[in-house]
Design a protein that fits this description.
The chain is of the alpha/beta class and 240 residues long. The chain has five helices and eight strands; from the N terminus they run αβαβββββαβαβα. It has two domains: 62 residues; 157 residues, no CATH class.
Length: 240
């Protein structure tokens, strides 16, 4: 094989693996920055429902702790499928919390284990039907976390509506069904209850994984370069 072709292939391999390593390091840095922002925002006093209703701009304070008063819209609870927790399969349970006559908040209430015998069976949730007070933090909108591929509520079958199991969700779907405006997404951080687990993963754990992947790519890059030098330069000349 032409030595120039081999050299170009090796250079391309080294460039690609180094690029992937740098991308993984940038992802780790982004997650660390998000974690630092979370720490700073969570150090501030919790925002109360009255403050948020009076000043809607406060909903933009991502990661800020909040304490909300409202009523669960139980019939609109959605189970996001294929969400693992410590290696176990299950659902993220999402429910709108009505905070006044016109507005509601989409709450990530916790994780629910899947029934291993019947994947479509949903365990009963002990959801209060009276007014509740929940603690949480303002989260990123769901539209930034999941692929928006579900059909609109108006086109879903009756069976799909009854099951409430979906792969993804959009705020506009909830607004369509409830007639309420979704003002924010909130991650509930109360102790585990209602049959749900709320020991949410720490984002710094995944940043460590990104660094590990980065060093793997760097190692592969070094291996490609080392093999090229050995077989194309050192070994041929060693025979002479």
């Amino acid at each position: 094989m032409n030595r120039w072709v081999i050299a170009m292939a090796a250079a391309l391999g080294v460039a690609l693996t180094i690029g992937l390593a740098l991308w993984q390091l940038s992802r780790a840095q982004q997650k660390d920055e998000i974690h630092q922002a979370m720490i700073q925002m969570q150090a501030l006093p919790s925002l109360q429902s009255q403050q948020l209703v009076a000043d809607p701009q406060l909903w933009q304070s991502t990661h800020r702790a909040v304490q909300l008063n409202g009523q669960w819209l139980v019939d609109q609870t959605i189970f996001l499928d294929n969400r693992s927790h410590h290696g176990a399969a299950g659902f993220w349970v999402i429910s709108p919390l009505k905070i006044n006559e016109q507005e509601s908040v989409l709450v990530k209430r916790g994780w629910l284990a899947r029934d291993l015998r019947d994947p479509k069976f949903l365990s009963r949730l002990d959801t209060p039907t009276t007014d509740v007070v929940i603690n949480g933090r303002i989260d990123l909108p769901l539209s930034q976390w999941f692929t928006l591929s579900n059909p609109s509520p108006s086109s879903q079958s009756v069976d799909t509506k009854k099951s409430r199991i979906q792969s993804n969700i959009q705020n506009k779907d909830i607004e369509y069904e409830t007639g309420l405006k979704i003002v924010a997404t909130v991650l509930q951080i109360d102790a585990s209850s209602d049959g749900l687990k709320r020991d949410w993963p720490d984002i710094t754990q995944t940043s460590d994984k990104n660094r590990a992947y980065a060093w793997q790519w760097f190692a592969l890059s070094a291996l490609i370069a080392g093999l090229y030098v050995w077989f194309q330069w050192i070994k041929p000349y060693a025979k002479k």
